[in-house]
Amino acid sequence: MSTLEGFEAQLRDLPKVSLHDHLDGSLRPSTLIELASEIGHELPSADPESLQETFRSNANSGDLLKYLEAFAHTTAVMQSAENLRRVAREYVEDLAADGVIYAEVRWAPEQHLAGGLTLDEAVDAVQAGLNEGTEAVEEQDGVIAVGQLISAMRQADHAEEIVELALRHRDAGVVGFDIAGPEAGFPPSRFASSFTRLAQQMLPVTVHAGEADGIESVRSALVDGRAQRLGHGIRVAEDIALTSGPESRSKTGDGGEDLIEVELGPVATWVRDRQIHLETSPTSNLQTGAVSALTGKSPSEMPHHPFDMLYQLGFNVGVNTDNRLVSGVTLSGELAALAEAFDYGLAELADFQVNAIEASFLGYEEREVLAAHILEAWQ
């Protein structure tokens, strides 16, 4: 076992928080193969390890279309209540095996109606699976809680309907709302009335922004989307000017250049000063080209990620997986990779867990209890 693998194993036993993880990007390869066989859907491979490697290779190809190919396969098998329930149950069990004690899982019910389900039936099926998974973890003396984030697809223009769906289920497992899908060309301003409705009903919102589009997308998420958190959000770094020279040194997220002065633009200032949580997904951000868009380096590697620069400047950052199957990652693995890239110890990695739980859509008392538990365990 390598040093990195040993550290990842150590992290697996510590309590962690996941706020940005897509249900349809996190199936077990073996489950995907079994369900695809049942419905006659052809996959790139019928061997779990080979299938995982195909998805991982596509994700690392630098081609976003190849990265997205996996979702045509996963959503194809998630069109019945039975299959949604199973995928959700296993999702919880797999998170718990990685040491996650609180998670918010996002998914778009409108993409799971081909088998005849209604939107409400789809949400109920996923919630039933989440409940079963939680109970199974508790039976093994584990602890985990999972809430649903209901996503509307930006390109589909069903936001008003999906908002009402989320509101109907807010007391039955739904903890918040999200918009996903193509970021460029579909700004949150297109759905301003839907976000107003959510604000009036006081259901919290996270918005995918600052991943596949730049700083104006982040601005729209904050202004039009009233986002309490930013999904990824790393391109807020476009609004940060660095002046380098020999007088002082700091990590910049791009090789540790010398740093004299940092100037934050208005959007970056707002995000930092208001402590808007950034739901970063380091490996996914590299794979989808979000980091390359910032650095001009293609392919980019973990030391190029702006995560450390943002952390050093006081931004509220968290660590997530985005799509565990597609990217071939775990939350423990992501933390270990960041620790290797930026020389973090357990104290820094614990900070990211506390940031995440405090930015979660749980109630105040629940957040306080879990934050205390996390700090005690990580110490």
Automatic annotation (TrEMBL):
Pfam families assigned: A_deaminase
Cofactor dependence: Zn(2+)
GO molecular function, one term: metal ion binding
Primary enzyme class: hydrolase
Alphabetized Gene3D superfamilies for the sequence: Metal-dependent hydrolases
Domain Adenosine deaminase residues, every copy: 15-375
UniProt keyword Metal-binding present: yes
Source taxon at top rank: Bacteria
Classification via NCBIfam families: PRK09358.1-2
Name this polypeptide is given: adenosine deaminase
Organism of provenance: Nesterenkonia natronophila
